[in-house]
Amino acid sequence: MTLSIYDYAALTDEECDALIEKAKARLGDRCVILGHHYQRNEVFKHADFSGDSLKLSKDAAESTAEYIVFCGVHFMAEVADILSRPNQIAILPDLAAGCSMADMANLMKVNQCWSELAQVLDVENEVTPVTYINSAADLKAFCGEHGGIVCTSSNAEKILDWSFSRREKVLFFPDQHLGRNTAHRMGMSLDDMVVWDFTKPLGGLTVEEIKNAKMILWNGFCSVHQMFKPEHIDNFLAQYPETKVISHPEACLEVCQKSDYVGSTEFILKTVRASESRSRWLVATELNLVNRLNEECTDKNIHFMSPMLCMCSTMFRTDPQHLAWVLENLVAGHVVNQISVPEKDALLAKKALNAMLSVV
Ligand code: 13P
Ligand code: SF4
Fold this sequence. Notes:
The protein is an alpha/beta fold. It has helices at 13-27, 41-44, 53-62, 74-83, 107-117, 123-126, 137-145, 156-166, 176-185, 207-212, 230-239, 253-257, 265-273, 287-296, 320-331, 343-359; strands spanning 31-36, 49-51, 67-71, 89-91, 127-132, 149-151, 169-173, 193-196, 215-218, 244-247, 261-262, 280-284, 301-304, 338-339. The strands form 3 sheets. It has a 5-stranded mixed β-sheet with strand order 2-1-3-4-14, sandwiched between helices. Strands 6-5-7-9-8 form a 5-stranded parallel β-sheet, sandwiched between helices.
């Protein structure tokens, strides 16, 4: 009989730890647990591999385990399902662990945008669609179908190079900030970028604005990273001028421009870990990562950029209770919370993901 999540609700984290360890030992090589850097400690400590979205995609693609348990959010488990072999099973411990930014673009709106752009441009020859990996599988499939590609926060520059070498314009979704920050760092003027407001006809733009734009940015954003403000940096530097500032590219342009370093979660960890002893850092990314980094690097001063708590509430949904539940079910021979992308979408999405993996 399949075990119910309600049987786990009353268990303490410590009780779940013991169950997780026991189940992992029973499953052995048949199961791999992947953990994104934003996972809370109680879950993160059980991961066999941790990383940013790119590293975890590669880990999923290379894994030979029968079960890939993804402690992250929904789009990550979809990528694991798409890139893994047909006999492998991707599992998301809590199905409600989504990404609010990924939800800001959907296939209906993107199709509408594409057909509206087609009234003004020869889209198939002039526009490369690029989706941030933080998006649903059908949007990755859209990119696969239209000669486009996927990017992550650690390869966006190389992916934009690839895209502009094929077509003169890019439609970038769902995160306007990653698109803007990356193109701007590559030397593109802000005048060459427009924001597509998906609530308005023709994205709220004029025909002239669309024709002149090189980068068409979807107006999505991450609710966690939009909490970081340039004044947080100014105030902190006024007190500690020696501080190095490091930000995730989902933060706004003004924050990234005031930062010494901008990069993915993996990049942030590597850069701070490799820095000099006693150096001081102001970090703009999710709180669980920053807290863990602070605990690990006892020889450095690591500060969270915002005075507000910026936690990714959907990443936080995965708890030891859900992890114990999915693992114990696997031991009992039951798969719960499988993420399975429909074959038609999976094939096209894989095309766009493989295009990315061939670039990086
Ligand atoms: P990374 O690819 O840098 O891990 O970012 C994923 C993410 O969702 C950041 O908000
Ligand atoms: Fe999505 Fe933002 Fe959470 Fe990353 S931090 S998973 S972009 S909501």
